[in-house]
Amino acid sequence: MAKTSESGAFVEKFILQPTSSSQQLPLSGLTFAVKDIIYMLKHGNRFDVDGYVTGFGNPDWKRTHSAATLTAPAVLDVLEGGATCVGKTIMDEMAYCINGENIHYGTPTNPCAPDRVPGGSSSGSAVAVGAGLVDFSLGSDTGGSVRVPASYCGILGFRPSHDAISTSGVIPMAQSFDTVGWFARDPAVLNRVGRVLLHLPNVNPVRPSQIFIPEDCFSLSSIPSARTTGVLIKSIEKLFGGSILKHVNLGDYVKEKVPSSHHFMAKGNDHAYNIPSLAALSSSMRLLQRYEFKKNHAEWITTVNPNLGPRLSERIWDAVRSPEENIGIYRSVQTELRAALTDLLKDEGILVLPTVPGDPPKLQMDLASLEVFRARAFSLLSIAGVSGFCQVSIPLGMHNNLPVSISLLAKHGSDAFLLNLVEALYDTIQEEAGFAEKFTN
Fold this sequence. Notes:
The chain is 39% helix and 15% strand. By secondary structure, it is α/β, with parallel strands linked by helices. Residues 21-191 form the Amidase domain.
């Protein structure tokens, strides 16, 4: 199929019907799109070996790989849940970026801000939802590839607990962090899709026990607190009362509770530029990602010498040429951070974070201008990435005509709790965000 021009979101359009026509299925009547990192057969049939070639965001990858011989379990789950697939979406090359700009297939148009990047690497999946072309979409999130485009495109984006959803049939980027995530505009749809993907029963919502707001993390954001934490605090107070709100310095907590992260502390870190302990988490995540990416793809890259976009080529080749690493220290950081955050949040606790540290960058922004923004972004994104916790990005309307968001993070395995909480909070948050928007723009 030819690429369509619908917001530039799709690399290929087609129809895969649900495996059952029953109207009683949880996703009946919904349409979805799939990131071009996920294997799919042409008829969604377990026994059909005629599949689409998964492109991984690069024409040379597509040229040198065969058609899929299986459909990823995540796609099968939503097809069996009653949803209809309408195509595959554009992504960053080899999932190695969070901007969403693809030199080969084009950059999907951000529906909230056409002069800004849509976010990546699940750019097309986010744009397809944000532009109203589908009800939900599937993406993958390794370092932030669902959360970032959800924030930039003004929609909901969910990164599940690591290993909670099978990544079988998904081209690996870095298995220690890879997850199958999803986007939606409607919190009820986000919840329904999550229950299908996570094989969760319907359960009654649970009141959060504590909600932690790390002021140091929000100091990294260029968005006024009235448009982020102010909106959330008023919403929590309305629904649950203010007694569950707690303030914490997350940087100090991580520094104390994650001693292995000290190995990755950069000397002379400027606190105004970043939070040293969180920058250390980001460094450990980046190095382990690079190690696993090299294990997965170095042979193909060195053999094929693919045509890579100029903004990605250097980064990908640096990974391929990087020295062998002793990954034991990275594993220690993961273990310590998960234990520390589990102890902080306990049961039904929530950590609030900026999804990203500010406005979506402009298209083709120079790399030097992006450096500080990217460093701050990955410090925030690495908290869920390294711990394996689940995280959801929630839109908060517009500030200065650009989308604003906030994230909620819950401990590993608390996906159902987090999905229910988002649905319970969403309308109140949108009301408060609308009120704040009138007085801060």
